Amino acid sequence: MEARGKMHILTGSMILITLGVLIILDNTGIYGFDKSWPVLLIAIAAGTLMQRLKDIGGWFIGVAGVIFLLVNNWGYDLHVIAKYLIPVLLILFGINVLIKHYKKKQQS
Question: Measured on CA atoms in the order 57, 59, 63, 66, is the torsion positive or negative?
């Protein structure tokens, strides 16, 4: 089996396990699915990032999952989160671009 197929199995398994745990938590009344569903996004992101750490889509899904989890469980206002998160993400993206540029420059 090719490596890509193995990684899809890993991600799919993580999603199924996470979904099963969340359903059990909901059925027992410990933690409602209405508040825990963003954990599925985080599981998808984790599986994607295990395949390729530089996958922007994986990071986007993970950040969205964390934001939804914060909003659903702790009542954080999305506007307040975005007010600080967007500038931090821009800074991190800029640092990443600089690092890639200098690594490429040193290799040539």
Answer: positive
pLDDT tens digits for 21-77? 999 999 999 999 999 999 999 999 998 888 888 888 888 889 889 988 888 888 777
Q: DSSP string of 22-56?
A: HHHHHHTTSS-HHHHTHHHHHHHHHHHHHH-TT-H
58 and 90: one domain? no
CA dihedral of 22, 23, 25, 28, whole degrees rounded to 10: 180
Q: pTM of the full predicted structure?
A: 0.68
Beta-carbon contacts of 23 under 8 Å, excluding residues fewer than 6 positions away, are 33
Q: Which domain holds residue 68?
A: 1-76
Name residues whose C-beta falls within 8 Å of residue 76's C-beta, 6 or more positions apart in sequence: 70
